[in-house]
Write a structure and sequence with these properties.
Layout lengths: L1 H19 L5 H13 L3 H10 L5 H4 L2 H4 L34 H13 L5 H17 L18 E4 L2 E4 H13 L3 H6 L6 H8 L3 H16 L7 E2 L1 H30 L1
Helix pairs in contact: 2-7, 2-12, 3-12, 6-7, 7-12, 8-12
Length: 259
């Protein structure tokens, strides 16, 4: 009986962990939301503040993770990622029947644009959209199905066991030692032309943009490798760039909806 009990507990832990390791950590999501605020039009910002009852985009950015503890929201779990082989595009990749990050974002936008949507639905899907736009820019959210976006690739982070996905979700950012406000405040200074270029394209185009980095991240470490300061030095600038892109593109979508 004890053995069976332990097996059940262990299986439960594994199942919950498969959902807990598939997103930017709270700091990354909040930084993306905070950056987006800077690029909102006055009109969009006013409407969003009213809709969210004064809560900021940074504050609501973790909502889609928080509801994972409630199984009635399980249909949204696949919306946090896209499974793609490294040598395929989104268009020719096998699709999850339950949806994915692209269809999730598109649905959120559809609800927010619709005059038929209820206030509650608009509030819910705005929070989800903020989160998903952050997820879209984490390279291992556009990862391989067979290793669950590198969740099963075990590595070490400064001598402690982790996996490659978690390194990119949280370990790199946490090692940097900055709050989400500090990360947002210290975003790279971009020209109007650079910002315009980041905004160009569709959600699928942005998936492909992130997917270019996905290939590089998979090649960045060997299973079991101890990743240390050198890894942070090389890859933290990429993390910061992705957080900034996510914020700028989120603001673009929100300005189109509310501006």
């Amino acid at each position: 009986m004890v053995g069976r009990f332990l097996i059940v507990i262990f299986s439960f832990i594994l199942s919950t962990e498969s959902f807990s390791n598939d997103v930017w950590g709270p700091t990354g999501h909040r930084a993306t939301g905070e950056i987006a605020e800077k690029y909102l039009t006055r009109k969009a910002k006013k409407k969003i503040q009213k809709l969210l009852k004064g809560e900021s985009l940074a504050f609501v950015s973790t909502f889609a993770d928080e509801i994972k503890s409630d199984r009635k929201y399980s249909k949204f779990f696949p919306w946090h990622y896209v499974n793609m082989s490294l040598n395929k595009t989104y268009g020719i990749s096998a699709k999850n029947k339950r949806g994915d990050l692209v269809t999730g974002i598109e649905y959120c936008i559809e609800v927010l644009k619709s005059k038929e949507s209820t206030l509650e639905d608009k509030q819910f899907y705005l929070k989800m959209l903020v989160h998903f736009m952050g997820d879209l820019h984490q390279p291992l959210h556009i990862g391989r199905k067979e290793d669950k976006g590198a969740n099963t690739i075990q590595v070490q982070w400064h001598g402690k066991g982790t996996n490659l996905h978690r390194v990119w979700d949280e370990d790199l950012i946490n090692q940097w030692g900055m709050s989400y406000l500090e990360l947002a405040k210290n975003e790279k200074c971009l020209s109007k032309g650079e910002i315009k270029k980041i905004k160009q394209g569709t959600v699928v185009d942005w998936v492909h943009d992130t997917h270019k980095l996905t290939k590089r991240v998979y090649d960045s470490a060997e299973p079991g490798e101890n990743l240390r300061y050198r890894y942070s030095y090389v890859y933290m600038p990429i993390v910061r760039e992705q957080l900034q892109k996510g914020g700028i593109r989120l603001a673009k979508i929100l300005n189109e909806i509310f501006g």
